[in-house]
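Q: What would this chain look like folded?
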Amino acid sequence: MEYGIIPFPELEISYHCKEDHARIDFSNPVEALSSALYHGGRQTISHVLNMKVTHNIADDYKGYESPHTTLENKARKLGLSPDFAGLMTSASMKSFRFYSETEGDLGVFCCLTAGLTNARAPGDRADYRDLEAHRAGLGTINIIAGTNARLSEAALCEALMMVTDARSWAVTNCGVKSRISGEPASGTGTDSHLVFSGTGPEIHFCGKHTLLGEMLARAVITPLQEVIKLIQHMEKLKII
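A: My prediction, written as structure tokens:
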């Protein structure tokens, strides 16, 4: 098990990682924006659960509970309050990495898990041609990142853009190729990201010209490139 506490001004973040899940707990509720399977979109949350599954239950429910029910049941067993966001991945929890840094009263935090088996380039032919929702593939880059700062609604959206941009840059910079087209990949087909905002210094912008944007991007790129390079090394050795 991996465990730690990150103390920021006005916000303390604790993380736990075990074989079948990683969880993030906040000392007080944070504002979040995400593509999470459970409580995605704009939410106020106290926890984030990133659950490992061995089957793509989001795509095929036969013999399995729905992702929503599965995440609720797991959260209940872990004693999480109902105000949590839930993500799923088939990536190994051995890929769990975290990063934090502070400058003055401003802090940023990121934790993630990653797999690359369904790496994709934007515009690749879709796996499914109907209009139903599908989440195919076994590789996923799940990222939870944010700040103790109080972000405006626009800045929270910019933060999600920055995390996605940083993920894409890290994947491309590491030379990951799409498993469909062979073109430079920017992520996988099932990536899920969550950004959060605390109650610290008020910030209205989070783009590439801002200190927060710089710190947040670095918080994603640093651990993600480490994991990608490890995966690539293991693939060369045919360990995975």
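Residues 211-236 form the longest helix (26 residues).
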